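Chain A, query sequence.
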Amino acid sequence: MQQRLEKEWELSIDPDTVRLFILKAKALSAAVNEDYDDGAEHEVEFDGDRHASHHHDGLVEEASEDLTEEEFRELINDLNIDEAAELIALAWVGRGDYDASEWADAVAAARERPRKRTAKYLLGLPMLADWLEEGLEAIGA
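Chain A, predicted structure.
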């Protein structure tokens, strides 16, 4: 039976917390993708006969999407410096910028990023959920 190699790192961020970020990122991604599925995003049709009965369901939907993004930002802002750096490093490992064996280098590079822009940076990654999942898998967390 092959013995598993001892990991050269300890995570400050709980892998379950990362999984929560993955779920939030998937929810945000799904909300954006659903909006564009029918190819009629943000089109407004005016029908003079039905304007009085028009409901603003889209505003409720939009508010819930904003809430998810707001929650995501708050969760990231609640992380300490080490946790935030590790979250970024996990995304980089998952994306292939770093190998799992380069974990310490990835975390060090992530710590050099401006802390105030962490949420914006992560939200701007198009495949964040996938990269975080792959990063966790790569480091065996």
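Residues 15-33+60-139 form one domain. The two ends are 21 Å apart (CA to CA).
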